[in-house]
Specification:
The structure is a single chain. The protein is mostly helical and about 230 residues long. The chain has ten helices and no strands. The protein starts with a helix and ends with a helix.
Length: about 230
């Protein structure tokens, strides 16, 4: 075991090309998925947070429930949609990084929407009367609250990043874990462990844990900044 750890640190120290190819792809896929989820989830969270309409409560319940979507189910659904016989089969996206981005976006979207909805709702409860008094439209109010709630909203985004980086079930179904094409950190760890190549698996695990700590540390700093009311 000691030799495996020594080899793992060696792979990291010498910037092993195969290792960092996997890490680079993981970051590209995950961050792209988070970006797409935020483009949809933040406006949707604002809509649910500051507006009232028939059926809103049911929508909120559904969105909250979708935060616990099983990754393998998401992977299966996306696989069926992108397979040759599926409605999007003509796009030929299956077993490509694009399919992994789609699957991760589906997983992250409810998280960003639900967490941002709570942030917008809390801010609307605090500042809604003032914004209405100034005659602000819903769109202008949402933009104002987006700035006011930037720290807790950034924490919601980081929660999506953490979920994306740790995902394995969905991406292995739609990506296929193909070397030099769709192999990301989590799928590579599973594969290399089964092969007995513990040095590469440990190296990837160490990097993944480091990224997880960095994401959680950033979230903690943002929460503290929000608590201090840093402008």
């Amino acid at each position: 075991m000691g030799d495996a750890f020594a080899q793992a640190f060696g792979l990291i120290a010498r910037l092993d090309p195969d290792l960092f190819e996997i890490v680079s792809l993981s970051l590209r896929v995950s961050l792209t998925a988070v970006g797409l989820a935020c483009l949809v989830g933040l406006p949707l969270g604002a809509l649910l947070g500051i507006t009232r309409f028939p059926g809103r409560r049911a929508v909120v319940v559904v969105v909250n429930a979708l935060m616990g979507l099983p990754p393998v189910v998401v992977g299966l659904v996306v696989y069926l949609m992108l397979s040759r016989s599926g409605p999007l089969g003509s796009l030929a996206l299956l077993f490509r990084p694009s399919a992994m981005v789609i699957a991760q976006t589906v997983l992250i979207l409810p998280i960003v929407t639900a967490l941002s909805r709570q942030v917008f709702e809390d801010l609307w409860r605090e500042y809604g009367e003032q914004l209405r008094a100034f005659g602000a439209s819903r769109l202008r109010a949402a933009a104002t609250l987006l700035v006011e709630g930037r720290y807790p909203l950034a924490t919601a985004v980081l929660a999506g990043v953490g979920r994306a980086l740790a995902e394995v079930g969905a991406v292995i179904i739609v990506g296929g874990n193909i070397a030099h094409l769709t192999r990301v950190m989590t799928t590579a760890i599973a594969l290399e462990t089964s092969r007995g190549d513990l040095s590469l698996a440990l190296a990837l695990g160490l990097i993944l844990v480091g990224l997880s700590i960095a994401v959680n540390g950033a979230a903690q700093l943002l929460q503290e900044a929000a608590g201090r009311g840093v402008g």
